[in-house]
Recover the amino acids of this structure.
C-alpha cells in the first residue's frame, strides 16, 4: 500500500496542469506591476533604429519568419518594432519565409499602419512569401526586385515608391528577422549577412534565443529580442505598454510555479533515496 | 541503363556542386549573373516540389482512409481541411488564384482567422502544461553534472522573467552571464561540428562517395 508521502511525491499530472492554469489565470485578474529592465541585446536593436532615424531616416527590411503557433511571442515584437519604425518615420518593407504567416503579417501591417497613419506603398510595403528560403535569401540579396517582382497586392516593386530604389540587400539600412524556427535568423546569417555584411538584428521565441549567442558574439547579429520577455523590454523602451508587458505577470508566476515544482521534485527524489537507505540499514 | 541511373545523376551532382562553390567564391560579373539566374530558377523548382509534397501527403492519407487504419478519422480531417483551404484559396472570392489575393473579409481569411489560428495557438500553448509536468518528473539532480545543469536551468528560467530582478537584482545578470559564456561556447562548438559535418557530407556527395540520395539499396 502506498504511503501518504508516495501519493504526494507521485502527484497526478492533472494537479500540475491545474497549478499552471491558476498561475496563468490569476495574475491577469490581480493588478500588480513588475519593473521591466531592458537587456543590452534588446537595447542594441532599439539604438540601431534610433540611429537610422537620427541620420534622416531610411528603409528597414522586416522578415516575418513565423506563423500563428508562435504569434503569442512574436506578434507583440512585430507590433512594437513596427511602432518604433513608424514613430521615427522609417520606411518598412516586409517579407516572410513562412507561408502560413502571410495573413497574420498583413493584419499586423494593416493595424499598425492605421494607428500611425501610414500609407501602403509610400511608407511601407509587404511583398509576402516566396518559396526557397536559402535560395531566396541569396537571390534577394543581389536582386530584390527580381526576387519579389510584385507586392501582395500585385503592384510592381519597380514602381512602388518605397521599393523602387531597392536593388539589393545593401540598400536596406537594417534587416530584422522575426524568427520562430528554420528559415529565419540562422539562415539569414549563413546565406546573406555573412556574405554581404549588412546590419542585422533578430527577434525570436524564448526557446530559440540561446542558439543565437554565437552570432551575437561574432557581431553577425547586432541585437536580439528573445521571447515575450524581450518583447516586453522593447515595449518598455518605446514607452508603449502592450500585450508583452501584460504577459510578463502570468509568465513570471508560471516560471516561479515551475521552479517550485522542480525543487519539490528533487526534494522527493532525495527523500526517497534517504528513506531507501534507512530501510536497507535497518 | 547504368548511364541514366548512375552516371548521369552523379555527373549532375558533381557539376552542380562545383558550380555552387565557384559561383560563391569567384567575384565576377558573369559569376554574379549565373548565381542570380540559378537561384531564381531553383526557387521555382522548390515551389514545384511543393506539389509533390501535397500529392504524397494526400496519397498517404487516402490509403489510410481506404484501409481504415487506426486513427483514420484524422486522415479524413486532413482531406477536409486541405479541400476547404484549396477550394477557397483557388476561388479567391471570385478573382481566382492567378490574381493577387483579395483583401478583407474573404472565406479564406475567415478559415485562417477562426479555425487555423486557434488550432495552432492551442497546440502551442498546451506545451506549457506538458513542460511543467515533464520538468517535475524528470528534472532530477541524479549526478553532479545533472545537478549543475539543474541549477543553471533554474537560474536562467528565473533570471529571464522580470520578477527575478525584484527578488534579487543579480538574477538577470547571472542568467545573462550563463547565456553569454557557457551557453555560447557550447553552441559555437556544436555549430563548428555541424559545419564540418556539412562540408564533409557535401564533398562526399560531390565526389560520388555518398549515394544514398539516389535511392536504391547501395
Amino acid at each position: 500500500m502506498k504511503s501518504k508521502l508516495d501519493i504526494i511525491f507521485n502527484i497526478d499530472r492533472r494537479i500540475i496542469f491545474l497549478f499552471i492554469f491558476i498561475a496563468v489565470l490569476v495574475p491577469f485578474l490581480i493588478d500588480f506591476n513588475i519593473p521591466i529592465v531592458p537587456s543590452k541585446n534588446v537595447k542594441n536593436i532599439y539604438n540601431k533604429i534610433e540611429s537610422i532615424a537620427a541620420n534622416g531616416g531610411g528603409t528597414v527590411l522586416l522578415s516575418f519568419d513565423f506563423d500563428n503557433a508562435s504569434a503569442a511571442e512574436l506578434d507583440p515584437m512585430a507590433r512594437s518594432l513596427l511602432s518604433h519604425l513608424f514613430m521615427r518615420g522609417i520606411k518598412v518593407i516586409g517579407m516572410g519565409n513562412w507561408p502560413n504567416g502571410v495573413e497574420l503579417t498583413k493584419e499586423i501591417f494593416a493595424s499598425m499602419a492605421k494607428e500611425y497613419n501610414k500609407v501602403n506603398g509610400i511608407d511601407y510595403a509587404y511583398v509576402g512569401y516566396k518559396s526557397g528560403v536559402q535560395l531566396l535569401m541569396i537571390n534577394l540579396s543581389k536582386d530584390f526586385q527580381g526576387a519579389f517582382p510584385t507586392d501582395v497586392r500585385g503592384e510592381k516593386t519597380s514602381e512602388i515608391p518605397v521599393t523602387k530604389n531597392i536593388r539589393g540587400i545593401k540598400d536596406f539600412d537594417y534587416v530584422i528577422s522575426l524568427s520562430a524556427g528554420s528559415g529565419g535568423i540562422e539562415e539569414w546569417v549563413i546565406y546573406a549577412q555573412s556574405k554581404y555584411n549588412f546590419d542585422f538584428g533578430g527577434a525570436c521565441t524564448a526557446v530559440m534565443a540561446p542558439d543565437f549567442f554565437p552570432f551575437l558574439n561574432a557581431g553577425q547579429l547586432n541585437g536580439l529580442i528573445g521571447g515575450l520577455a524581450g518583447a516586453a523590454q522593447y515595449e518598455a523602451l518605446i514607452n508603449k505598454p502592450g500585450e508583452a508587458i501584460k504577459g510578463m505577470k502570468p509568465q513570471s508566476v508560471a516560471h516561479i510555479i515551475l521552479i517550485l515544482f522542480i525543487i519539490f521534485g528533487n526534494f522527493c527524489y532525495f527523500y526517497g533515496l534517504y528513506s531507501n537507505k534507512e530501510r536497507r540499514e535497518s | 541503363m547504368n548511364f541514366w541511373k548512375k552516371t548521369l545523376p552523379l555527373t549532375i551532382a558533381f557539376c552542380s556542386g562545383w558550380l555552387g562553390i565557384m559561383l560563391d567564391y569567384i567575384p565576377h560579373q558573369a559569376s554574379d549573373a549565373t548565381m542570380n539566374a540559378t537561384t531564381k530558377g531553383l526557387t521555382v523548382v522548390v515551389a514545384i516540389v511543393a506539389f509533390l509534397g501535397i500529392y504524397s501527403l494526400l496519397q498517404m492519407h487516402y490509403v489510410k482512409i481506404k484501409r481504415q487504419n487506426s486513427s483514420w478519422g484524422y486522415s479524413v480531417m486532413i482531406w477536409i481541411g486541405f479541400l476547404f483551404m484549396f477550394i477557397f484559396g483557388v476561388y479567391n472570392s471570385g478573382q481566382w488564384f492567378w490574381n493577387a489575393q483579395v483583401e478583407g473579409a474573404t472565406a479564406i481569411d475567415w478559415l485562417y482567422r477562426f479555425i487555423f489560428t486557434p488550432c495552432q495557438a492551442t497546440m502551442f500553448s498546451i506545451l506549457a502544461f506538458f513542460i511543467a509536468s515533464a520538468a517535475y518528473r524528470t528534472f532530477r539532480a541524479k549526478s553532479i553534472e545533472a545537478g549543475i545543469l539543474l541549477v543553471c536551468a533554474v537560474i536562467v528560467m528565473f533570471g529571464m522573467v522580470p520578477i527575478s530582478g525584484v527578488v534579487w537584482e543579480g538574477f538577470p545578470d547571472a542568467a545573462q552571464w550563463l547565456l553569454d559564456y557557457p551557453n555560447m561556447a557550447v553552441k559555437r562548438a556544436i555549430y563548428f561540428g555541424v559545419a564540418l559535418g556539412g562540408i564533409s557530407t557535401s564533398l562526399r556527395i560531390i565526389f560520388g562517395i555518398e549515394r544514398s540520395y539516389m535511392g536504391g539499396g547501395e
Q: What stands out?
A: Chain A touches chain B through 69 residues (CB under 8 Å). Chain A is about 55% helix and 10% strand.
